[in-house]
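User: These chains co-purify. Model them together.
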Amino acid sequence: MKQVALIITLLLMSYGNGRYEAHSSDKETIRKSDDSLKVFDFNELQTYLSAKDANKTYVINFWATWCAPCVKELPYFETLNTNYSNKNVEVILVSLDFPRQIETKLKPFLKKKALKSEVVVLDDVDANTWIPKVNKDWSGAIPATLIYNKNKKAFYERSFNYQELENELKQFIK
Amino acid sequence: MKNTLKTLLALVVLIATSAFTPVGSGYDIGDIATDFKLENIDGNMVSMADFKDAKGFIVVFTCNTCPYAVAYEDRVEALNKKYADKGYPVIAIMPNNTDVKPGDNMSAMKARAKAKGFTFPYLMDKGQKIYPQYGATKTPHVYILEKTKKGPQVKYIGAIDDNYKDASAVTKTYVEDAVDALLAGKEVPEAKTRAIGCSIKV
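Assistant: Joint model of the two components:
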């Protein structure tokens, strides 16, 4: 019996390890915003990293206009967002563009590409603190993608083509 | 009861392995790093073994084309100026596939080094054989090695400091703190740190 208790304790501990901290969800709900681009520090971004809507699967892509492989895979995320929006999937594009280039590079880029997915900017220099909170194995290279819903979570430090991305998503919405 | 126990045990093992399996391979703190023989921007081949008097090395995987690497160029040069004479020279290695990133090819590396006045070797990881052994994933990505009897031992992996945007607003100088500790014969205070960077182009 003692053994069982020990195992249960271990189980709970290791489970706790991989979980995000709980957040208060008093922030405004996730919504599309055409007027102005949201610029967040990591604390503010965290509401996007814990399911606001328990029925949804979220695909969070970390990218930047200066990251060529990120720009290359953006259309696949856009397509995914369109094709799966009626299946409770939401794509959120977290830009790591330099703040001084938001007006000069990011906004013109967004205007040109007319992205349908929500784009937010993460401006938080203390990456050593926040990177492990996104995923403990993330070295910090982008592109990187987090897919999660209330049952499952996976992190990918890699590039995708559409098929690969869709295959990963399908494991979440079976 | 036995079955419950077995199931629980299996679960624990599963969770434990999934929680602790590293994503990539490469060096961890304490590993002995491989030496290399790579072409420098001056045409010479450079190895760590060439640095007879060095106590160790600040190996920086970096490139011309990544904005994060560019943001740190002057700071990498400052590290070499500060620590080369103390026994910890900077060795920069450009890991990208230059077919994918022509802006990182040897002539571009030479031009950049000249324009910025680099005083450290800036080597081409030709054939991309070295960076995977180290486990570098991005630029910039720093490995601090200390010479030991067994070979160059990895003492630090990670970021240069905690503010890519503004060198004057840095609060934690991870690399300097690590080298200072090694020079003082102390443990590196923070042996692994993380920063955003550009994925290495393959």
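The helical segments of chain B are 2-20, 67-83, 106-116, 130-134, 174-183.
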